[in-house]
Amino acid sequence: MQALQQNEFQELVHRYPRAIMLTTTDARIAYVNRMFSSITGYDPQEVVGRAPSVLSSGVHSKKFYQAMWESLLNEGHWEGVIWNRRKNGETYPQWLSISKVEIDRRRLFASMFIDVGDLAAGDERLASLAYYDPLTELPNRALFQEFLKARVSIRREAHKCCAILFIDLDFFKSINDLHGHECGDRVLQQAAVCIQSALRTGDMVARLSGDEFAAIVELDSSEEVDVICQRMTQAFQVPLMCDRKEYFLSASIGVALYPKHGETGSTLLQNADHAMYTAKLSGRGCYRMYNAEDTEQGRFKQRLSEALIASLKSAPEEFSVVYQPQYQLATGQIVGLEALFRWNHPHFGAVSPDDFVPIAEQRGYIQELTEGLVRCILADLPVAADDVPSGLKLAINISARQINDSRLEGTLAPLFARLRQIGWLPEIEITETHLMHLSSACLAWLHEFGQQGVTVALDDFGTGYSSLAYLHKLPVQVLKIDRQFIKRLGGEGNDTRIVSAILAMAEALDLDVVAEGIENEDQYRQLCELNCHRGQGYLMSKPVPWHTLHADLACRYQ
């Protein structure tokens, strides 16, 4: 009975779906199973009695194997990714686990491995290893780093170069916030396919975390990486389709070259990450090569981010609001104000909203920023209606990422109540790009605001994807023409025609129009000739603190 059980056990080991190899303490192969032969290409009689180095690829250094043996001798176990060579000469990565065992009083090393480079290895591999991303079925960060270390070693021996691409999806967080994580996951899967389509056979891509991906690109010359990055950014110019709905994303890509920008995998990945951040600062949807000067700018942004979070939590006195009047262009009368948040840090000084607002959005502190804005406005505004002219509009900027936040309505309620108390009208501004991605539930929320007398303005109009067919469905009453079109009014371009077209479209849809960034008399005159309704800009008034504005609020430009 014992012999039968032993035979059954041997047959079980022989048929086990992972490769098994037993080696003696003097480094000789004593046994291999069927899966070993399937993966390596060696029959048992070809390797039994030989040293395990018959499988060596030559990729790893002596230090790698020394560390492996130290772990085996001291801890009795070693586990990780190792690159080995098949009988046909092909180099491949395997996930290897080695442990000390004792069989019939004989000490052996039991090795168990699978081919982690075989993406068709089946669900069993994906379920049993924490080295593949289950959503996209791409290698994850841990496995990518192992691949990267090995590829760098191969390139070092061959004196060849390769590129590391760090890829971050622009605007993906908005999709997650507005449509939920299930929708976000499906968009991520589509994005992974989009990234892979820009790469070639032999290049390797992984999902590092969230909306971050990385790729290893083999190069014969550094010029090849430009073609690949251009192909990848162009691939995202077409909207991703999920559940019969279009989602507009772009990809910011950072590139680091081996050995020019680093000689270790960790350095290369870090420098590619820095370059990606530079691509973000350059306007997104582009790629940038690693540059040490750009990295210093990235470090500055990180320090600024940490300072913002600390100030929001413990130094409310650093924040204030300034107000820029909006004028009825035909009469020159003040008809509204835009409240603009300001941050004055003791070390960084006056920080531009263009710098700190995106940081608050990216780090998840935009709600706290809005709370600070409301708190400052309430401290400025009077409580009695006879202290200010009635009927003015007060506009504040809202991030689309907040609309799903249950705290937002409670944050805005005291401000709206104060405005109604003094006879003013509330207005919220949302950028065009973000508004186009709002879910039906968010749009319904905005519709409800409109019914409560809150005006919704489409900010930076002309820079996004709005169409006439879609615009009339949005709960919007005001279009704010982006300042870049106002700046070039009367020039050689088509900006005057664009502004004229926007005004005609607004008239057809019964929408009010605000031109922002009016800086000279010619711009003012042309906007009046085009029958633009409202305007704001340095020509009429710079943003000023409440105490400066309050004394002469009735009319500052005639």
Any overview of this molecule?
42% of the residues lie in helices and 25% in strands. By secondary structure, it is an alpha/beta fold. It folds into three domains: 2-127, Beta-Lactamase (2-Layer Sandwich), CATH 3.30.450; 130-290, Reverse transcriptase/Diguanylate cyclase domain (Alpha-Beta Plaits, 2-Layer Sandwich); 312-550, EAL domain (TIM Barrel, Alpha-Beta Barrel). It has an eight-stranded mixed barrel with strand order 13-14-16-17-18-19-20-21, surrounded by four helices. Strands 2-1-5-4-3 form a five-stranded antiparallel beta sheet. Helix 11 packs across helix 12 (353-363). The chain is elongated, with a radius of gyration of 31 Å. The model is unreliable at 119-128 and 554-558 (pLDDT under 50).
Task: Give a quick rundown of the structure.
With 558 residues, the chain is an alpha/beta fold. Helix content is 42%, strand content 25%. The protein has an eight-stranded mixed beta barrel with strand order 13-14-16-17-18-19-20-21, surrounded by four helices. A five-stranded antiparallel β-sheet has the order 2-1-5-4-3. It has a five-stranded mixed β-sheet with strand order 7-8-6-11-12, sandwiched between helices.
Structural class category: alpha/beta
Count of discrete structural domains: 3
Rg: 31 Å
The CATH class designation of the largest domain is Alpha Beta
CATH superfamily of the largest domain: EAL domain
Straight-line distance between termini: 107 Å
The CATH level-2 architecture of the largest domain is identified as Alpha-Beta Barrel
Strand order of the largest sheet: 13-14-16-17-18-19-20-21
DSSP strand content = 25-35%
